[in-house]
Amino acid sequence: MYSGKVLRVLKRKKIKVGDRIRLVKKKRTFQGILMPRIEMGNKDSLILKLDNGYNIGIKFEPRVKIEKIKSEWKIKRREKGNIETIIFDKKLPTISIIGTGGTIASRIDYRTGGVYASFSAKEIVTQIPELKENANIKTKEIMNIMSEDMTPERWKKIARAVAKEINSGVRGVIITHGTDTLHYTAAALSFMLIDLSCPVAVVGAQRSSDRGSSDTVMNVACAVNFVVNSDVAGVCTVLHGTMEDDYCLAIRGTKVRKMHTSRRDAFRPINELPIAKIYWKNRKIEILNENYRKRGDIKVKVDDKLETRVALIKCYPGLDPEIFDYYIKKKYKGLVIEGTGLGHTPTLEQYSLLPKVERAIKLGIPVVITSQCLYGRVHPTIYHNLRELSRRGAIFAEDMLPGVAYIKLMWVLGHTKKFDEIRKMMLTNYSGEITERTDSRSFLI
Amino acid sequence: MVDLIDYKKIGLKCGLEIHRQLDTKHKLFCGCSTGMKEREFITTLKRKQHPVASELGKVDIAAQYEFLRDRNFYYQVFPNEDCLVECDEEPIHQLNQEALEIALQIALLLNCTIPGEIHIMRKTVIDGSNISAFQRTMVVGLDGFLVYKGRKIEIIHVSLEEDAAAIVEEKQGNVTYRLNRLGIPLVEIGTGLLIGYMPGEIQDIAGLIGMICRSIGKVKRGIGTVRQDVNVSIKGGERVEIKGIQELRLLSKVIELEVKRQLSLPKVKEETRSANPDGTTKYTRPLPGAARLYPETDIPPIPIEKKRIKKIKKELPEPWTKKVSRLKKELKLSNELANQILRSDYLDLFEKLTKKFRIQPSIIANVFSSTIKDLKKRENIPVENLEDNYFEELFKFLVKGKIVKESIPDILSYKAKNPKMKMTEVVKKLKLETVTKEELLKIVKDVLRKNKDKPITKIIGIVMSRVRGKAKSEDVVKIVKKEVQKIY
Questions:
Q1: Nearest C-alpha neighbor of B118 from the set B154, B135, B142
Q2: What interface predicted TM-score (ipTM) does this complex get?
Q3: What radius of gyration do chain B's Cα atoms show?
Q4: Which of A353, A416, B291, B349 could covalently link to B56 via disulfide, CB atoms 3.0 to 4.6 Å apart?
Q5: What are the residue numbers of the active site of A?
Q6: pLDDT tens-digit profile of B150-175?
Q7: Shortest distance, CA A178 to any CA of chain B (angstroms)
Q8: Whole-angstrom Cα distance, residue B471 to residue B213?
Q9: How far is A137 from chain B (nearest CA, A)?
Q10: Which stretch of DSSP H or E encloses residue B422?
Q11: Contact A214, B50 (CB under 8 A)
Q12: pTM recorded for the entire structure
């Protein structure tokens, strides 16, 4: 908003945002609609929308004369999203869309320039008229955050909302989500939703939905097609497969990672092939990886016990091993190391992690080894230094992604604190997070 | 053609919008080159665009949807000139300060007020020419004027914007664009309503605005770098906007033809038309309103300090009226040549070269005002391939006596067709290296020996034909005369 000084003058003159005003500065007259101050820029600058549609900022000084001509716009506050159901055709299946916020739900208010999150069913349908040929749509907004603010507590809330929808009999569920941590949520849901019997698509957008070039339209359209028409029972991300508006990839929730800050095809499968290619215009679903659970009709259960005192530590040359002491002191219950290469950690001089790993394990804190290479599998015995880690009891997490191992360890520790149990569970494949064999075609796709 | 229309009586009103590409190193919002030199694209991106839901309701969403539904847009991506920003795959970088500086200079030359804070806006575009479906634009100057025939011409705004992608072809709803023009900085200058002017005068005013832009020396030249839009209305009719007139000399014709078209209609609808190369126009779409502008949120508004404006004002180039007299007085150009070079796209380069080289300014002026034009007009030589540094090299060769001025047209023509070849190679290839005095003397002696009985004018002619483009004609005459005297 504007600075106190400006606000006082506006109040005295009974001028509100949205009023048409006249402004005289150094004998020049400007006329236009007073706009609200957006968060960026100088708070003393009045923003005026000129009649040609352009905005300009005019620095407010005592000598500036300002007067109201008339009120032009009423700026309405947006209402919080409620549950809405849109039924197009009773013969069509019904799906649920659960909104959590993020770029996909963001759009600019054309009048104010403020970015609001709003993703009501009505708006989805306005943007994607073709949806009405596919499904009836139930929407629910359960939170409205950008995904960097996602937390384990919020994963639980999403998991419960998803289970509720599925058990109410919908054919599939779509979660709209900010992209930054979308893959973490997809992995968390993969562990927490037990006996999942239908597709759950986690969808985001890299270009906000107010743009004519937004990727929202194709991503949501493909996700709807996927949850209605595929026989996959599992959590998958559904986003652009390439930079083109051609097809989306459905990627397993435990084998996916955001690999680019801004491209629309940022989400890539790691260490396995994508589950399916979903073509947009001809609606073809091409299965690329048969290794998935099939649709059924058992009730889904939520198993959301998480031990959140788990940390993810990245190895790099020069890492101070004392970071372990901090976590130990703070009573952390599990540590995941993002090692180098095959899962290495430094072993020489004051940089050696070995004594710390040994200490943590002796105190009953499991240490899980993953690799910052992301692609490929860690190995406990190839090199001497790996054997040193392994001998001390570290758990080598196969080809699990570091972020996925982090979430899985939270989930495992929510169920047991017994060391052997933990090791067994970490190395058991629950939701496709571990592959037994790596397809040679699965690198850099 | 006899003009039978009384423009005053029919109440001709026009408004001009002049667009000029700026000659900056980088594009407006990224580090890509503005060179437009690449010929081979590296990939093509297929995209769809969608109607935008909340445009204040002024543009009918349903109509937008119908329009876009069956359209596929294909974008050709070029090396060096396109990056992820042009592909709509990366947020814009910070605003190009070089471009902002030039736009502010132009705004100040047109006596505009500069806003204290510049707000970048997105202008919705649905023809696909902007891959993001909007064009970024910002007002950098308001409420200015210029003087034409003693009357003030109102300048409503000067805006800085990104150029759109250029269309390659359109086939049954499949539209292909080249992305490399997208993002080149562009200034847009909008005049107030011009009432009581003849079409020719309106063309003059557009020319004047163009000249003022060029006086900064940082605008691009050549076809496609200038686009003029004109709004035309007559008494009792709506406003029709004609877009994309690339050549100034067509402007008055476009206005004349549009007036005739409007006079022939029972009722004129508000619409946008685009200009054909012959001056006629075709309907494109209904006129979009102010409603299609909304704020760019990726980068913050840009404050413009008073100090900065003061500094730019101090460094502004001289007004064009002063410039004409200076060109005549200091550089001893004829009135005609001075006016020609002032209206030339090469004005800035001309001034640079006259300062740098001790060559008669009229020689340089002639290269830019006639040689280049002639090459283009008569032989359709691609003179746009000739870069600034090449002209510098050319005149350096001339100063050093490595070439003679008579060979300039041949060298330029050859170089334009072979832009990658080096200057020395071109000169060698064309056999245009100057001959030394000794060599010339040898040739003269040889010619004299073989043509003993011929008159001196004939001898000079023969020698000239043997050393054309390799020796100055005055040298040939001097040596021949001297040698002839020796004999007789």
A1: B142
A2: 0.90
A3: 27
A4: B291
A5: 103, 179-180, 258
A6: 999 999 999 999 999 999 999 998 99
A7: 16
A8: 40
A9: 19
A10: none
A11: yes
A12: 0.86
